[in-house]
Amino acid sequence: MRIWSVHPRYLDRQALVACWRETLLAQAVLAGRTKGYTQHPQLQRFRATPEPLVTVGSYLAAIADEADARGYNFDRSRIDEPAATVSPIDVTIGQLDLEWAHLMAKLDVRNPDIAARWRGVERPDPHPSFRAVPGEVESWERARPAGT
Question: Basic and acidic residues composition bias: which ranges (predicted)?
Answer without folding.
Answer: 139-148
